[in-house]
């Protein structure tokens, strides 16, 4: 009888009690447990490998997106929604633009804002200027990215209205997310852009401590100085604390009819309100932060001169090579300086949306514009192009931009004086 290692005969198992026959014993059980553990480890290993592969694929997709590549159809909607809020209008709801735009047969009539189809009573009841600005915004959205018109207005969209509604909701959220990204990143970085114009003193350190939005606005003399109407800058300098209190109490006007001090790079000139207007250093830094990246905003180099990170900046992703009245108006929105934690149309006395519209209208060139204002607009946009993109002068066709044209304010203000000057026709 042959023996196994350990001196046991080969028929040892056959000689066991039938009730014990087949009993594996501790050694066999250990071997079986080891096999199960190895199988489980192998399974976990495959799962881990799948996860790593999935992460690698996801990172590759994210990398392609950072480089500006459109990976799928959803990216087209994403880009268009984010582009809309930054380059067209940050206060208009995209869902409202869709609602009005789809109700108006703007492609089949000479007056695209008058003919309304369907049974949308609210759209039919809208005043013509309001309807016009939503239709113009919708048209701008359709032209903003290649493929967006076909995706939103083509046969597939007509066949799947539920999908179109889902896309509208998604794009509305994405547009608001883009705005939140900008305001959120500027909340802290914006303080650094303010102190770049201050000597490294206790004042600069005080500004950097304004980390809570509730500390800003006219709750601080430092942000109050920038928000104060430039025509009142001398009054502010004489008594900053008292001036802030007067604005908070409403006894000193601070509205969208007046030009804030941060828009200027020099003292206020009552004889020429355009002297230094829209050349404030803080304005340019905020524009760069949003469109060409924080690294370009903190230095003097333009986007073309700066060794940028691998990730493309918003200007590159959006194909923006020059400034426009609307991108400038978005950059000079005063949210970063205000005490408001959330983006809002009204901030105390100040109408932020009206201010945006006025800046856009001010920078538009039209047929009846006065020669001196035409020159100021061209010089201003050329200056911005040079500061941000290191670009030379543009042609007049590049200067033109659509405006909402829905401001009808008869009360005298800084903007009214400038707009009146625009309308003077040379003999």
How would the global form be characterised?
A: globular
Round the mean pLDDT to the nearest integer and report it: 79
Q: Unreliable segments (pLDDT under 50, ≥5 consecutive)?
A: 1-31, 300-309, 401-412
Strand order across the biggest sheet?
1-2
Query: What is the radius of gyration computed over CA atoms, rounded to a whole number of angstroms?
Result: 32 Å
Helix content: 40-55%
Count of alpha and pi helical runs: 20
Order of helices and strands: HHHHHHHHHHHHHHHHEEHHHH
Structural class: mainly alpha
Beginning-to-end CA distance, first to last residue? 128 Å
- E-strand count: 2
Tell me the strand percentage band: under 5%
Largest sheet: 2 strands, antiparallel
Write a concise synopsis of the structure shown:
It is built from 20 helices and two strands. The chain is mainly α and 427 residues long.
What features would you describe in this structure?
This protein is an all-alpha fold and 427 residues long. 55% of the residues lie in helices and 1% in strands. The chain has helices at residues 25-66, 73-87, 94-103, 121-124, 128-144, 148-153, 155-159, 161-195, 202-208, 221-227, 233-238, 240-249, 281-291, 294-297, 314-318, 325-331, 352-362, 371-389, 396-399, 414-422; strands spanning 346-347, 350-351. A two-stranded antiparallel ribbon has the order 1-2. It is globular and about 65 Å long. The protein starts with 24 loop residues before the first helix and ends in a 5-residue tail after the last helix. The relative contact order is 0.08. The model is unreliable at 1-31, 300-309 and 401-412 (pLDDT under 50).
């Amino acid at each position: 009888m042959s023996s196994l290692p350990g001196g046991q005969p080969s028929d040892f198992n056959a000689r066991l009690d039938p009730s014990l026959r087949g009993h594996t014993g501790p050694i066999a059980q250990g071997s079986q447990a080891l096999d199960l553990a190895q199988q489980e480890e192998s399974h976990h290993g495959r799962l881990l490998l799948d996860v790593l592969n999935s992460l690698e694929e996801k990172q590759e997709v994210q990398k392609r997106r950072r480089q500006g590549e459109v990976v799928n159809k959803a990216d087209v909607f994403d880009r268009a929604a984010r582009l809309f809020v930054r380059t067209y209008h940050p206060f208009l709801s995209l869902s409202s633009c869709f609602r009005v735009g789809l109700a108006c047969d703007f492609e089949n009539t000479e007056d695209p804002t008058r003919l309304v189809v369907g049974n949308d009573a609210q759209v039919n009841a809208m005043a013509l200027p309001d309807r016009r600005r939503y239709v113009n915004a919708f048209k701008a959205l359709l032209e903003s990215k290649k493929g967006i018109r076909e995706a939103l207005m083509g046969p597939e969209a007509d066949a799947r209205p539920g999908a179109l509604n889902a896309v509208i909701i998604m794009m509305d959220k994405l547009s608001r997310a883009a705005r939140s990204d900008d305001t959120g990143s500027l909340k802290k970085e914006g303080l650094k852009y303010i102190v770049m114009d201050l000597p490294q003193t206790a004042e600069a350190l005080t500004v950097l401590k304004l980390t809570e939005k509730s500390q800003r606005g006219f709750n601080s003399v430092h942000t109050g100085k920038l928000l104060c109407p430039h025509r009142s800058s001398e009054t502010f300098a004489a008594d900053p604390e008292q001036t802030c209190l007067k604005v908070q109490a409403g006894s000193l006007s601070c509205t969208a009819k007046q030009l804030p001090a941060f828009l200027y790079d020099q003292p206020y000139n009552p004889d020429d309100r355009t002297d230094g207007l829209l050349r404030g250093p803080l304005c340019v830094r905020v524009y760069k932060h949003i469109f060409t990246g924080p690294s370009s905003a903190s230095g003097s180099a333009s986007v073309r001169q700066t060794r940028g990170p691998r990730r493309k900046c918003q200007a590159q992703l959006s194909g923006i090579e020059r400034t426009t009245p609307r991108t400038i108006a978005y950059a000079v929105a005063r949210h970063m300086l205000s005490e408001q934690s959330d983006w809002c149309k009204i901030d105390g006395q100040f109408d932020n949306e009206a201010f945006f519209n006025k800046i856009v209208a001010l920078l538009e060139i039209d047929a009846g514009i006065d020669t001196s204002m035409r020159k100021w607009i061209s010089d201003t946009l050329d200056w911005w192009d040079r500061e941000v993109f290191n670009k030379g002068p543009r042609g007049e066709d590049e200067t033109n931009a659509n405006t909402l044209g829905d401001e009808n304010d008869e009360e005298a203000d800084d903007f009214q004086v400038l707009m009146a000057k625009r309308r003077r026709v040379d003999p």
